[in-house]
Amino acid sequence: VQPNNYSTFYDDQRQNWSIMFESEKAAVDFSKQVCIAKYNSSPALDAVLCQDLVLGEGQGVEGGDSLEIAYTGWLFQNNGLGQAFDSNVNKDKLLRLKLGSGKVIKGWEEGMMGMKKGGRRYLIIPPAWAYGAQGVAGRVPPDSTLVFEVEVKRVKLVKECSGSDGQSVSSRDSPAPSPVPNSDGFSAD
Question: Where would I find the PPIase FKBP-type domain in this sequence (predicted)?
């Protein structure tokens, strides 16, 4: 994914191709389909599959950074998007999380690394990186592969925090600034 609605890729002969799309929506939709095709063509996925939709700006996030994100999650069914099981897109509250804190599924922790403010990414998360054999009662069946579209709305980098003496202070040493997610939030499960 490139700025200004471009995508570039290599074919199986390692030739470089670029496609310019008429709109951001067309570029994003194409990128989603590429990600689904990658998943469907891999024999057994044992890691998170990530596809950038919009790059965002600034520095990429790392473990310890705090984020506020908008997301939608779907079950992966019949080789494509199934039923949506969770979203905060049309809600007033963004999900707050600190990468590396273990408050969300392992696939999110892995799949969001390197994202930038304003960035959007598509994640396809195999069961071992999501809710595994237990699933989530009434929402996510056992051994489900999940698809998420995540957008980073705000970022607080650990490196931006500094003490009065100018020394860097890790926000890991202080309590998380975000409230504990409520029972209907994604991370509470």
Answer: 64-156
pLDDT tens for 27-80 read 999 999 999 999 999 877 788 999 999 999 999 999 999 999 999 999 999 999
Q: What is the CATH number of the domain that holds 68?
A: 3.10.50.40
Q: How many domains does the chain have?
A: 1
Taking a C-beta distance cutoff of 8 angstroms, is the pair 48, 111 a contact? yes
The whole-angstrom separation of Cα 114 and Cα 5 is 20
Supply the residues annotated as catalytic.
71, 85-86, 105, 131, 148
Q: Read off the pTM.
A: 0.79
Q: Are 51 and 121 in contact (CB under 8 A)?
A: yes
Residue 70 counted as domain residue: yes
